[in-house]
Amino acid sequence: MRNEPLTIHTAEGALRGTVDDGVFVFKGIPYAAPPVGALRWRGPKPVAPWQGVRDALQWGNASWQNREYCVLAGGGEPGPLSEDCLYLNVWTPDMEPARSLPVMVWIHGGGFSIGAGGLPPYNGRALAARGVVLVTLNYRLGHLGFFAHPALDAEVPQGEAINNFALLDQIAALQWVQRNITAFGGDRRNVTIFGESSGGRSVLSLFTSPLAAGLFHKGIVQSAYSLPDKKRAEALACGVAVAHHLGLDNATAEELRALPADSFWSLPAHLGNGPVAIAGDRVLPKPMVEVFTAARQHRYPLMIGYNSDEASVLEYFGVNATAVITELRARRPLALKLIRSLYDEHDDVRLGRKVARDMAFGTMTLLAVQAQQRRGVPGWRYYFDYVSENSRDLCRYGSWHGNEIPYVMDTLNAENVQMADRPFTAGDRQFAHRVSEYWLRFAQDATEFSHQLAGETPWPAWRSGEDITLRFGMKGEAAIVPQRRFMRLRLRLLRLLARAMVRLTV
């Protein structure tokens, strides 16, 4: 069966979807009112119910962004761009299962500036066919998603300011899931949120947001970076500078909302938000890293990991990973000597990539699982080091930032313009099936009382004594191997040195 129409009833109205190879698909479902006009830079409002049957056959609009950059680095063509972008997509294998199915909600990455839930690597059909309800979503990006300005503060009582509109969009999508996912065969009491890069940062932020409590039950974090959240005072100053650049001094809220939506993504780099949320508003009262450091995150199971060549993404931001070693040589020669011994690496380029990778991504994984243990809930740590068979000459240093996504989502058959001349092989697809099985097991089985995940290799929850990390791939080759005390000394040292290291700037 393919592309057969069907109708389903949600709290807001009836939807017409299709069947794709036995999986029911509903695209472009509005989960909140369009955040346009007077609703720009406000929390998402409820969708107006509709009469009759609404088609859910096409992807919804993506948020304004740099289209070419999304095609190059974000996973593909994002489709129509609009400020009216609050739409989600659902794949389900059975709308009336004998037992409600686990729900997985994917939050796309892209530095909070590019991406969309309908991109080919995020297609939910393959995972849904294996027994889950899969949801992807669009949310506000760039300055439409994260913005602070004194004129907006003046509209609300002191202490009630909202700046993380993108995170509120994600929360609204999770509220939609709680209202409606039962109609798609999903279990509203078993919702896993997962995402990569800024999507992974979103998951961590939702773990620390008081407004997200109770809307999900566990999370998976892929390649979340350890950059600090932006302070609200800095965000306010940036907002004033943005308004000035766009011709508004002493701007009113009305004047700000009248600015064209497409004027924000083309701002110069120094007026950008950076790929982080804003700490200090109602959505994120405290910086995410600070909350995890204090082990005060929500008590939900968490899986977290990163890739072997995360330094690949730093090049997009113009960051020279070798500069880390140069600065250490000049400012911390004894630390550099110790680092060289821990990494057993004497080439500055290779060492720089590894140190930058572990400082920017690895330390976050260690902090998170340590916080989980202190909070009394399980955490699992992984390391992805597989490279597709036709790309091993290209990926000389390991698995690039984002390379795990089609393995996790089991979408190696999806169209990917970046891989057109290096097609995936049967071996790659077999490994994707093995990797994605752990994500499915986590969604199906993990609870706050779990001690391990079942699978071809049982995966114990992280404990400080055993310090077990599950490796997906070994030096680019297919393998799934648990390893004790993996990078333990490296990451602990880098956490101590973090303030003295080169900071990632965008």
UniProtKB/TrEMBL annotation:
Its top-level enzyme class, in one word, is: hydrolase
Key word Hydrolase present: yes
The lineage's top-level taxon is: Bacteria
Record bears the keyword Transferase: no
Which keywords, in A-to-Z order, does the entry hold? Hydrolase
Identify its protein family. Belongs to the type-B carboxylesterase/lipase family.
This protein is called what?
A: Carboxylic ester hydrolase
